[in-house]
């Protein structure tokens, strides 16, 4: 196969492992941040709250490699942002097309925050994902909503505590990087964030019209693809995401057949997140291969408390694949529109003078 073609060139990157200096302690800390709240929820018979806490623990993924106080401020700020996004998602639950528009707006705001604070990657994904999952469900009773919001907040606090311990430990043998000044123009950040929000809303709209049971999966795929910096990078990211998702669906098959209890799901989620953090810099497709079953387990663990297993795993995997293809396609189109707008501004600039 000739990979010199611009469309096929990203296939060559599937055979390449990139260098990474991420310490294994970071992967272990992220795994604990996501797993401990879920294990606590299972122990106390509150699996739904435990899952919310697990999502909150993932705020540690925003931890920068900067001086201690700065990195803790960043985690605290993103904790507040995640709590606000999740609260908005709970309020949007069951509100139909208002929920679709609301998730689009939240995506734009979250993307702006991530770019202003230079936390891209991981970008707005882990701020939008809890909100999108919450908005996709039925309206929860007020007591349940407050309970889940408190659980997510607790997960954020767990991440802050463990992040502090990790930062002190790793700072003894790994130099910290200085805080960089913002190099991007704020109007450009806001325009691109608005386009990202519109693309995510479009993905949700099409997935809803097509009757897909979990439209937020398509939105997450769009969001992931559009975090590339160019059309070429977005196309490469799509190749990696689709390839990784297909591999991840193959990995998910035995997991879905074997896992029958929330405890088993929690341990699997911790192991999968550890693998994701080890691989995400080295090989994005392999990281996605572990993200895919992890995301499925996060969405399905609550049902294990009553069903003793995941119902219709084959249908679930098929829907996941369709969602990914739809969301990735919209992501590449959105990225192309973003580049076209940027080129249009560059062309018009001499005329303005």
Percent of residues in helices: over 70%
Overall radius of gyration: 20 Å
Terminal Cα span:
48 Å
Low-confidence stretches: none
Provide the succession of SSEs: HHHHHHHHHHHHHH
Query: What does the overall shape look like?
Result: globular
Protein model, in words:
The protein is built from 14 helices and no strands. The protein has 353 residues and is mainly alpha-helical. Helix 8 packs antiparallel against helix 9, helix 8 packs antiparallel against helix 14 and helix 10 crosses helix 12. The protein starts with 9 loop residues before the first helix and ends with a helix. The model has no long low-confidence stretch (mean pLDDT 85).
How are the SSEs placed, and which strands pair?
Blueprint: H1 10-13, H2 24-43, H3 47-57, H4 68-92, H5 97-116, H6 125-136, H7 142-171, H8 186-209, H9 216-225, H10 231-258, H11 262-279, H12 284-300, H13 304-307, H14 313-352
Helix pairs in contact: 2-3, 2-7, 2-11, 3-7, 4-5, 4-6, 4-7, 5-6, 5-8, 6-9, 8-9, 8-14, 9-14, 10-12, 10-14, 11-12
């Amino acid at each position: 196969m000739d990979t010199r073609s611009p469309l096929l060139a990203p296939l060559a990157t599937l055979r390449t492992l990139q260098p990474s200096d991420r310490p294994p302690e970071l992967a272990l800390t992220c795994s604990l941040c996501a797993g401990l709240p879920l294990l606590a929820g299972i122990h106390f018979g509150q699996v739904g709250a435990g899952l919310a806490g697990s999502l909150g623990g993932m705020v540690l993924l925003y931890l920068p490699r900067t001086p201690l106080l700065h990195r803790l401020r960043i985690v605290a700020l993103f904790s507040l942002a995640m709590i606000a996004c999740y609260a908005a998602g709970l309020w949007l639950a069951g509100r139909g097309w208002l929920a679709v528009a609301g998730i689009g707006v939240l995506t734009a705001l979250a993307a702006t925050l991530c770019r202003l604070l230079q936390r891209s990657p991981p970008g707005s994904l882990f701020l939008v994902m809890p909100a999108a999952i919450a908005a996709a469900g039925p309206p929860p009773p007020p007591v349940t909503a407050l309970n889940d919001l408190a659980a997510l907040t607790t997960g954020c606090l767990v991440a802050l505590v463990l992040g502090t311990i990790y930062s002190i430990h790793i700072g003894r043998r790994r130099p910290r990087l200085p805080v960089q000044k913002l190099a991007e123009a704020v109007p450009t950040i806001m325009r691109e964030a608005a386009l990202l929000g519109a693309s995510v809303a479009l993905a949700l709209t099409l997935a809803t019209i097509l009757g897909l049971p979990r439209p937020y999966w398509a939105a997450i795929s769009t969001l992931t693809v559009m975090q590339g910096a160019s059309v070429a990078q977005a196309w490469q990211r799509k190749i990696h995401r689709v390839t990784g998702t297909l591999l991840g669906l193959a990995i998910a098959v035995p997991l879905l057949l074997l896992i029958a209890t929330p405890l088993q799901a929690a341990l699997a989620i911790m192991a999968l997140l550890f693998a994701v953090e080890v691989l995400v810099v080295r090989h994005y497709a392999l990281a996605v291969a572990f993200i895919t079953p992890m995301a499925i387990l996060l969405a399905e663990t609550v049902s294990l408390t009553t069903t003793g297993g995941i119902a219709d795993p084959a249908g679930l995997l098929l829907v996941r694949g369709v969602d990914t293809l739809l969301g990735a396609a919209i992501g590449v189109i959105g990225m192309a529109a973003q580049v076209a707008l940027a080129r249009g501004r560059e062309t018009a600039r001499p005329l303005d003078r």
